[in-house]
Structure prediction request, 152 residues.
Amino acid sequence: DHIETASDEALQVNGYRQGIAWEEAPNIQDIFPEIIDFLDGCIIAGQNVSFDMKFLDSTARRLNMQLNVDYHIIDVATLTYEHLYPCGITSLSLSAVCDFLGIEPEPSTHTALNGALKCREVYHKLLRASKLDRLKWSIKGLKWRRNQGVNP
Prediction:
């Protein structure tokens, strides 16, 4: 509704270009009830999910609507920290995590959908990791640290 309040950096990261079908985009007041229905009772998961929850919560309050999601949330950045930081990863950005795990990176222009799909891939890879996967990640981290001149 108020694109003029978005930072230039946010617009660039999200690939916003003025005049490209944005005028035809649905109004948040019209589609938010569908979002609320879709998320009813869900546990929200995402990369730095508290950031996204702030948007959902503030939009619900602004529109005087009730968002009914489970109070549990799954933050993939936190899972990454738990599983991969001990293995040597130094950045929790989605692109760094995808690179470390051998997942094809998100396209250069971030959108909610492609970010969510990559986040889902990372979540599933971390969730389903075997002991062998964790060993491989640890070895990869040791090699990375040696290449960086960091004592393991």
User: Anything to note?
Assistant: The CA atoms of residues 89 and 96 lie 8 Å apart. Strands lie at 44-46, 73-75. The mean pLDDT is 86.
